[in-house]
Amino acid sequence: MKNTNCDKMIIAIIQNDDYRRIIEDLNEHGFYVTVLNSSGGFLKKPNATIMMGLNHEHLDEALAILKRYGKRTEMEYQMATSTMGTSVSPLTVAPVAIPVHCGGIVLFVLDVAQNERY
User: Fold this and answer.
1) What pLDDT sits at residue 8?
2) Closest by alpha carbon to 65, among 21, 9, 112?
3) pLDDT at 85
4) What local confidence, expressed as pLDDT, does residue 99 receive?
5) In angstroms, rounded to a whole number, what is the distance separating the alpha carbons of residues 10 and 63?
6) What was the pLDDT predicted at 46?
7) Rounded distance, CA 51 to CA 11, Å?
8) Which residues lie closer than 8 Å to 6 by C-beta, 6 or more apart?
């Protein structure tokens, strides 16, 4: 890493399809990350959550790299409908399509009070 004085942490949730390219780009610029597998709360799609400790002097550079990959797209989510308890036949009810935004990056920048390596 460029500077071992870690006083910031970026936690970023990235769509699973994109995270390998993002990590390669960060690594090429001297940033190293820890990857956690996660899943989205609404769509239940797999994501990668990355954690990256860095010095505040390099924060803008790291955020610029992440921003390059932060393109959001819109997809239609097929919401299941329930006919339980009604007189409507399940075969006559079509699923409801809801437009949702997905992809991109959701990130948090945190202050680090203490950083130790053992």
Assistant:
1) 97
2) 21
3) 62
4) 66
5) 9
6) 75
7) 5
8) 53, 54, 55, 112, 115
CA 17 to CA 20: how far, in whole Å? Answer: 8
Beta bridge partner(s), residue 38: 47
Tokens found for residue 54: 């860095």
C-alpha 117: how far from chain center: 26
The tokens of 99 are what? 């437009």
Q: Which two tokens stand for residue 76?
A: 């239609």
Q: What pTM was estimated for this model as a whole?
A: 0.71
- What is the mean pLDDT for each group of 10 consecutive residues in the chain (118 residues)? 77 84 95 87 74 96 93 63 60 62 82 90
| Distance of alpha carbon 43 from alpha carbon 90, whole angstroms | 23
The size of the chain, in residues, is 118
Q: Is 17 helix (H, G, I), strand (E, B) or coil?
A: coil
pLDDT at 3: 46
Joined together, the tokens standing for residue 18 give 């994109």
- Angle between helix 19-28 and helix 59-68 axes, rounded to 10 deg: 150
